[in-house]
Amino acid sequence: MCAMHLVRFCRPYPGLINKEVKVINTWSSHTASTSTVVRNDRSLPSEIKPFSAVPGPKGLYNVPFIGAALHFKPFTKYTANEINDLLTDMRKKYGDIFKIKFGKDYMVYINHPDDAKTILQAHYEVHKRISFDLSETLAEREKVNKGLILLNGKEWADLRKPTQEKMLRPAVVASYVPLIEKVTNDFVDNLKKKKQVDDLLWELNNYTIESVGMLCFNKRLGCLDEGTNSPAEVAVALRNIFDMLQKSFFMPLKMYLYFKTPFYKRFEQEGRKFMEVVSTETAIQNEFLTKLKKEGKLEEYLENEPNFMYSLLADGRLSEDQISSVVSDLFGAGIDSTANTLVFLLAQLALNPDKQAKLYDEIQQVVGNSRHLTKEHLAKMSYLKACLKESHRKIFPISFGVLRILESDLVVGGYQMPKNTVLAINNRSMAMDDRFYYRPTEFLPERWLRETTGDIAKSKEFPFAHKPFGFGPRACIGQRFAENEIFIAATKIVKNFHVSMPSDVKEIKTTLKIFTTPSEKIKMNFLERQ
Which amino acid positions bind heme, per UniProt (predicted)? Predict the structure, then answer.
């Protein structure tokens, strides 16, 4: 799958089918209040309300295809990249459950963790994914294999199973720590020379291309070489791809489905740039492994260095084309998402020097003067993990949260949701709701520590309010690798530098290009520790 497949939401799945099927009943009352009083009323209503009673915009907003466009400029103050502001205002107006017409069907937004739990723990067999029409159109026209994010049903399961067996084993993830550490050491050396960067995201994009490249291709791609002062072409292509995907979601008339519009041609051009890089590097890695095998050196090589691509080839359950699609998924998804996560984590530490100092103390205590990071070091750093979790909460990494397409009728919050309804769990909204989080606007990693009690620990009562990597079989397959990469980078950077930003910067402004990203360039100072 190419990078344009990498998106957490798109046009709702067509057709709301209401058949006679088993209904699972759960209910809770909802209000738009942000009071810290958590509702306790779990009694059932006298009757279940029909789907038509779910609140939401009325009138022209419900015209198929056209209605969605009316929520944005020039009709309102919102752009497509500011949909979270729109959703926040709607939650205040309509409550914890509301619906919006996208395309010809409705998407229902869920803003309470109790309802999120009901949805995520419902019975699913097929695990349908939302239709990604722009990406799917490109894949079909280019005749490339669809990857995990585009596939559904048996095709998806057949691809997912062998891939997750290789990616979710702790021993496999741990084996990459030395390789990622080498990349990170080079990145730290570059920061020592620069001392200040004017665009932190581009710097980290080059870093993540190198580190994710080690996982996908077992090869350094040269993005951190001396004299490299601009973002890699593949990173620029990915940024443009994600920006266009975001825009395509809200297009009232998607003419690119029928012929190659100028918009589609631009998307196609960026997609081909990305696919060319992946195809070239995949072919080089295949040739390298074949050469080692012919020379009788493959076993010796594998004893000294893990190789994800070879593990899939040796498994025998996937074709080379399928393996290429998996590698493409991981490479594309891992670059931009991880770079943005690191930007926001470092920015939060810079804006909260007391938390940065506390993390530095933990690193010194656990790692000390050791020259190398180990899996044992990473396992012991609970405050580091809390910092990442809190950064994800404060600036949620994707547009809103987990999506589900119901496979049977389900009662949620007193409303009957028909089979095939698309439900969007708005984790971003819940993350800033003081019903679920103590002082939600503040960066408080302590709220996630096991030993924390009292008001600050309120978040522990609502585990379904925070799911940055998704939930269940459709959860992010690269989560463990991504977290390891982030932990290694954050540890090395904070161990070597005190990070800070200009004194007039008090908050980080964000926008959406599928993944949450800074809306302005972030300048950061790296003062080397003595």
Answer: 476
